[in-house]
Amino acid sequence: MSMSIIAARDLDLTFQTNDGPVHALKGVDLDIAKGDFVSFIGPSGCGKTTFLRCMADLETPTGGSITVNGVSAEEARKSRAYGYVFQAAGLYPWRTIGRNVSLPLEIMGYDKADIRARVARVLELVDLAGFEKKFPWQLSGGMQQRASIARALAFDADILLMDEPFGALDEIVRDHLNEQLLKLWDRTNKTIAFVTHSIPEAVYLSTRIVVMSPRPGRITDVIESTLPRNRPLDIRDTPEFLEIAHRVREGLRAGHAYEG
Amino acid sequence: MSMSIIAARDLDLTFQTNDGPVHALKGVDLDIAKGDFVSFIGPSGCGKTTFLRCMADLETPTGGSITVNGVSAEEARKSRAYGYVFQAAGLYPWRTIGRNVSLPLEIMGYDKADIRARVARVLELVDLAGFEKKFPWQLSGGMQQRASIARALAFDADILLMDEPFGALDEIVRDHLNEQLLKLWDRTNKTIAFVTHSIPEAVYLSTRIVVMSPRPGRITDVIESTLPRNRPLDIRDTPEFLEIAHRVREGLRAGHAYEG
Amino acid sequence: MTRNALPILTIVAAIFVLWYAAAVWLNAAWAYDRAGRAGVELSYTEMVADTWAQDKPKLPAPHQVAVELWETTVEKNITSKRSLIYHSWITLSATLLGFAMGTALGIALAVGIVYNRVMDMSVMPWVIASQTIPILAIAPMIIVVLNAVGISGLLPKALISMYLSFFPVVVGMVKGLRSPGVMQLDQMKTWNASSGQTFWTLRLPSSMPYLFTSMKVAMAASLVGAIVGELPTGAVAGLGARLLAGSYYGQTIQIWSALLMAAALAAVLVSGIGLIQRIVLKRMGMA
Amino acid sequence: MGWVLAGLVAWALGWLANVWLARLPKSRATGLAVPVIFGITLLVMWECFVRGLDVPSVILPPPSAIAARFAISTGILWQDFVQTVIKGALSGYVMGCGAAFLIAVAIDRFPFLQRGLLPVGNFVAALPIIGMAPILVMWFGFDWQSKAAVVVVMVFFPMLVNTVQGLQASERMQRDLMRTYGSSYWQTLLKLRLPAAMPFIFNGLKIATTLALIGAIVAEFFGSPIKGMGFRISTSVGQLALDLVWAEIVVAAIAGSAFYGGVALLEKAVTFWHPSQRGRA
Amino acid sequence: DEVTLQLKWVTQAQFAGYYVAQDKGFYDEEGLDVTIKPGGPDIAPTQVIAGGGADVMVDWMPAALAAREKGLPLVNIAQPFKSSGMMLTCRKDSGVATTDDLPGKTLGVWFFGNEFPFLSWMSQLGIPTDGSDEGVTVLKQGFNVDPLIQNQAACISTMTYNEYWQVIDAGFTPEDLVVFKYEDQGVATLEDGLYVLEDNLDDPDFVDRMELFVRASMKGWKYAQENPDEAAEIVLDNDATGAQTEEHQKRMMGEIAKLTAGSNGALDPEDYERTVQSLLAGGSDPVITQEPEGAWTHAITDKALN
Ligand SMILES: Nc1ncnc2c1ncn2[C@@H]1O[C@H](COP(=O)(O)OP(=O)(O)OP(=O)(O)O)[C@@H](O)[C@H]1O
Ligand SMILES: Nc1ncnc2c1ncn2[C@@H]1O[C@H](COP(=O)(O)OP(=O)(O)OP(=O)(O)O)[C@@H](O)[C@H]1O
Ligand SMILES: Cc1ncc(C[n+]2csc(CCO)c2C)c(N)n1
Ligand SMILES: [Mg+2]
Ligand SMILES: [Mg+2]
């Protein structure tokens, strides 16, 4: 067994709210190996974001343990082991798009010329070249989302934690970015944890798909992908792909209340 | 020709920004008839939100004209002709979910018992029963999005303007809500303008699909659906459906820069 | 600017009308009182004319104040002790120094409170308590003590200004520095930003609306402090000394002109902050 | 020298105790203990330095003398408290904050007023109390009414500025939402803009608490009946009864802190949703 | 040699002697460098001198003796003012004609250490000051004569040389007013004397400086009495607020001259005794409770004036 980059053992997390506790995560076990691309899928409110936040040391589990890169999540965060894309764009309203993207680079102490080059490169990647000088509220919802993706890609973290990064994007851009992300992953051998609501997206991107279910939030299924590492877009029409997608859909449906 | 509920004539909208004007809409012409279900699809930043905001009198066009219900957009807004679902949830942090949903009802002067009944009904509809007493920040992203949909459905507007309402939802919930929305539309004969990024969703829901393209934002194609009004979920596997979806995809691709 | 002219002029005109009316109302008693003692019968117009021209009226009419202002600003050499400009300058210098020190202290305390748990838990109640000490009561002691250790001149006055002005800044900045949302703070955490970095790139920018609002209040407080501070230094010069001397000799016209001068000073200073606020917020894309 | 040394030791001990306490998990007890220890440390240092450096008691009496005086003067202190805090400060606070609030809403409602009244308001409200107080005493008489009037003038401006700023604090999308409901001005005000303004309004209310107290006390320097905290302070300074002066100051500090604490508690209840409150359970 | 003098009140003709001595170079002649610190409504000269802010101060004897009993050992070294300028000024239309009419009326009184003469007068008259029906209602009077003009009080405290004239300037005629001079009521206490801390008198060097200071100051007073108009001009030149008027200062100088007349600068022990007895006689709440000792000395004036 290869070394686990992320290892969760019997993870529990309960929120205390004004009307009683909410079990966001219960008994979650998972290992993510170096170079894995793991997607998380599950009904809204099942704890995907919460789990990702535990990996990022943004939430403290109320039970169990989690390690990242073999050390505690906190140490991993402090060594800047990962880049995180939040579910909402969360750009700073007082900074232009360009300066929003350069912010983590400034914080990590990259030099000026390097910052400029990286910002230009990632904005190009998400198709926002030319919007560098705009303020966030001058951008459409999808453009803001892309800016926030660019921000997480601008520095070279070995681990990427992405919470529905492509939710607000149309199919064509999404396909494009899916391809780009796969290329990046293939080239750099990053480890990626990826939350999505789209079954085809999960299947297309991942080496493993984790299906979760709510109340309490837990893992109900882990599906290994048999697809090759190199994936052209039209792999999505192969029977193998459809077969995996079907299994994911079944797993997902099991976690839902309605029959439909 | 039946009476136009929404009629845009040669609509122009230019934003002035710190680095020059942005042509968000240019020469947009469109008629939406009573009972239509019109989807808007197009690359991110092409002006879908802006167009919807013009209908809602949240933006003032810099050229051309727009009428809603035969009167100016402003009058229509003042007569509470429509319900609007924003791209981001935009719940008020000081109100619980239940009181967020009841807000428009309070403003419109519904009586107490009616408000209670309606809130319960729409929260049930979006599967948030039991979360009435929680505050927005205690909910997951998808749950917030659903609360905001419930808020727009709680009162009986004849027109619904929905800006990517299902963007943050997983496939199963999305299918469920798609069905519910179709049922509601069928039953109440509402007129719906609906922004989405999902081609299947657009085809499944709409009587007409408007394809837009950016810089400047304009309408490049309007595709009439030949699907029957009554649509079971598995209509999505019929050749007719796939044929329309294909046409939309082609239209969409034409508006994009990349080939892929 | 011209857009604002009409509303301002309207309001000012309204105030003048009210003011003249109030002058009649407040000064009439004295006019009748004096006429009565002199045994003359006053007609209404005579009474009105009298109320607007008394030597020591309860409320001087605007033109009386205007004349006094004109005589003590334009017609006096600005180095003269009878020039209001001279006195304003004395007060202004203490105000500005006190404001600068107060703002700096306020921000420093707020940063301490937001970042340091010990300070968060211990300082705030005492900062509040400090503000409930009636400064006018201890100002003389402060001055005496400072004098004893050899500090005199501008600094003691500025210290009293500081004492009054740091409080609004602390209260506003603690709120402002804590106003970033959970997500924005989390983002900083994911980059393992140092507290300094989080401060400069997130907390400080988010606190700007609070900072400027507090600074406006602090500026007004600082002026009050400078004026209060002038009294126990012997009230030799400055607007406070003018106010005091005026009220000691019942020279209401002189009080009002010093008062209006002080208010004008405050208005200029406060709107100066407003201007900076607009420029800064605009550059931050927030206005 | 011994006393000075003792003062320094007290400072070190207090600091260490607080650092230790602050590391403990946050609870009601530590939340209370830390400021109390801080205060006690301050008092002990004061006592030690006053004794150690031989400061004459007509300049600064030691806390022990103040406490002794406090104990024997409770009757006077209570009478002064009622006169100044209850009658003067509180009534002025309510009227001043209320008026500022209403005017802020009016300013916000009519852009005409906003452009006209706000600059003029800045001007009027910056009138220094030293000048205002004698005039207000002349207008409203010697008793608490003139003190309340001074307080009204003092608290007006901070409250006005904060409320005006707060009323502009709602977000674009939140306002758009209200527009889609064809919501009337008053509905938007009540359901959106006022709640969103609350963090600012409470800022103003908090600052105004201490200003109200200062105003009521200082106003008594310019003429008063022969009771009240300001009267007692100025008279006692003249009589060199500094222990009574400080006993009055202690009353002022306690009253002010309680007043402020009450408003802060209310704030916590009303703006629980604001990140500045939410972050710290 | 440096000397710092703390005045009891703002720069005005009441302190003309010191300003004249400085302006005419009398201090220079004695080799002194004198700093004159004006007072004001918030300045307790006793506190300033206790804090080391001044070497010598001008204050009224009741305040100085009360401070002495509080543990601040002040000593009178010179007494340029012979008579008291204090009086109670009443509106005739308020119905006050004699002291018997006072009960039931509202009176304005200066506090901040200046209330002692009034309180001892009232207790000698047997009028309570607690606001009861048979007593008087006391107001803490502010800086000016407004309470009388606004009819908020029946009587207010005034000085012959200052506030009284403000009342006149405000439009009252002397016939509209009834005045009770403390001198006439037999309750006069000594005003404006020079006081220093007792400990300092052990220092021969300090005593020397005071000797020079008192000599030059009395020369100033003499000059001021002889040249009242010039003295008033000098005071005006030294008024940093620029608020005083020439007319008022000249008139004040005239009145002040009447009060200093009869004093060569040395304290008259008889006046002292009278003041002490008046303060001790305060009924249930006397200003001082025991006969002070060592509260004055002729050591300085003996040397300075001979
Ligand atoms: N700060 C919080 N306080 C209380 N409850 C919370 C908090 N954050 C999340 N929850 C609850 O925890 C559960 C899981 O939330 P989470 O955000 O992890 O869901 P999710 O799987 O990311 O959903 P979505 O797909 O809608 O984003 C939800 O029921 C939510 O209400
Ligand atoms: N307030 C504004 N100021 C300046 N430019 C704006 C503003 N709002 C939108 N824009 C610009 O107008 C264009 C259209 O924006 P719009 O929000 O309508 O796009 P959209 O089609 O809704 O995109 P998405 O699918 O990403 O939400 C974009 O280029 C955007 O940058
Ligand atoms: C707060 C205050 N304290 C004392 C006096 C009275 N006073 C002290 S010295 C002096 C000489 C008068 O010219 C007078 C009247 C006052 N007026 N206001
Ligand atoms: Mg989520
Ligand atoms: Mg949009």
Automatic annotation (TrEMBL), chains A, B:
Keyword hit for Aminoacyl-tRNA synthetase: no
Keyword Oxidoreductase appears in the UniProt entry: no
Matching entries from CDD domains are given as: ABC_NrtD_SsuB_transporters
Q: Which GO terms describe its molecular function?
A: ATP binding
Q: Which residues form the ABC transporter domain?
A: 8-239
Q: Which InterPro entries match?
A: AAA+_ATPase (IPR003593), ABC_transporter-like_ATP-bd (IPR003439), ABC_transporter-like_CS (IPR017871), ABC_transporter_ATP-bind (IPR050166), P-loop_NTPase (IPR027417)
Query: What domain of life is recorded for the organism?
Result: Bacteria
One Pfam family it belongs to: ABC_tran
Q: Which UniProt keywords apply?
A: ATP-binding, Nucleotide-binding, Transport
Name the family: Belongs to the ABC transporter superfamily.
Matching PANTHER family: ALIPHATIC SULFONATES IMPORT ATP-BINDING PROTEIN SSUB, TAURINE IMPORT ATP-BINDING PROTEIN-RELATED
Annotated protein name in UniProt: ABC transporter ATP-binding protein
Automatic annotation (TrEMBL), chain C:
Organism of origin: Lacimonas salitolerans
UniProt keyword RNA-binding present: no
Task: Spell out the CDD domains in the cross-references.
Answer: TM_PBP2 (cd06261)
User: Which protein, by its recorded name, is this?
Assistant: ABC transporter permease
Per its UniProt record, what InterPro entries does this chain match? MetI-like, MetI-like_sf
Membrane topology value? Multi-pass membrane protein
State the similarity comment. Belongs to the binding-protein-dependent transport system permease family.
Q: Which residues form the ABC transmembrane type-1 domain?
A: 84-277
Which chain regions cross the lipid bilayer?
6-28, 89-115, 217-241, 253-276
Q: Localized where?
A: Cell membrane
TrEMBL record, chain D:
Gene3D superfamilies, alphabetically?
Answer: MetI-like (1.10.3720.10)
User: Which coarse location class applies to the principal site listed for this UniProt protein?
Assistant: membrane
| ABC transmembrane type-1 domain segment(s) | 82-267
SUPFAM superfamilies, per the entry? MetI-like
Task: Provide the topology term for how it sits in the membrane.
Answer: Multi-pass membrane protein
Name the CDD domains on file: TM_PBP2
Q: List all membrane-crossing ranges.
A: 31-50, 90-108, 120-142, 148-169, 200-224, 244-266
> Which keywords does this chain's UniProt record carry?
Cell membrane, Membrane, Transmembrane, Transmembrane helix, Transport
Which domain of life, per UniProt? Bacteria
Q: Where in the cell is it found?
A: Cell membrane
Per the UniProt record, one Pfam family is: BPD_transp_1
- InterPro entries the record matches: MetI-like, MetI-like_sf
Q: Member of which family?
A: Belongs to the binding-protein-dependent transport system permease family.
Classification via PANTHER family: ABC TRANSPORTER PERMEASE PROTEIN HI_0355-RELATED (PTHR30151:SF20), ALKANE SULFONATE ABC TRANSPORTER-RELATED, MEMBRANE SUBUNIT (PTHR30151)
What is this protein identified as?
ABC transporter permease
High-level lineage: Bacteria, Pseudomonadati, Pseudomonadota, Alphaproteobacteria, Rhodobacterales
